[in-house]
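Tutorial handout. Part one gives the primary structure; part two gives the three-dimensional structure as tokens.
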Amino acid sequence: MDLLIAAITLPFVLAFGASIGSFLNVVIYRLPEGLSLLHPPSRCPKCHHQLGKTENVPVLGWLWLRGRCRWCRTSISMRYPLVEAATGLLFCWIFWQFGFTLTTVGYWVLSSWLIALSLIDWDTMTLPGVLTKSGLGLGLGFQLIWGWQAGNIPDYLMKGISGAVLGIWLFNLINLVSIVFIKQLGMGDGDAYLASMIGGWLGWKYVLLTSFLACGIGALVGGGALILGLLSHRREPFPFGPSLALGAILAMFWGDQMLDTYTNIFFPPI
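Part two.
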């Protein structure tokens, strides 16, 4: 991307992404509680004071308030500005890689769903069906748009459908094997639906890659949690959604390179 265009555009992308991150914070907090995402407006959870315009500015509002409610001085979690900043930076990264394209818009949508789902799973050990199912529908919708743009709707739509089917079948198979050998489910139902959503967006090759990466990430995180005493034993439930989300983001950016490297190592050209 031309550096001048990037210098002009990226600050706006960063601000836009941070604003989306601010709304994702609302989704992450309110959706599991069954609360409206629109009413009431953002407010202090303790004294219920509605945030003013300056207080509600992503990242900067938290810094201006020094991490405390202006009225009751209750501490405001640092996770709010971190989610806003991370979303803004991820939007910039996507724009830097894919430029002014439909792929950029699609991956902005996908990454927003992944951020919300992974943090809800981290907080509640659940992956709401309203998000995984709507995310799958949007993924198949974007496959239609990409297919129309490329002049090949059937191939793109089949890519999304096959990825969605493989994602849910793969995790159902993992659960079946787990029941046979360790007498308990290895994954939650929500993980299968999240994998199906990712497959709908990225296709069958990338959902396989995502699942492989997620297993590696989950093993590292789970092993670290055991060592640090955050988990008491190996079979204690642990959220897998964040690992799947991170695996999908890695596949988005470097999927082709990873698959090419794998092919060259295990199936070198003769």
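Part three, for discussion. The mean pLDDT is 89. Residues 1-99 form one domain.
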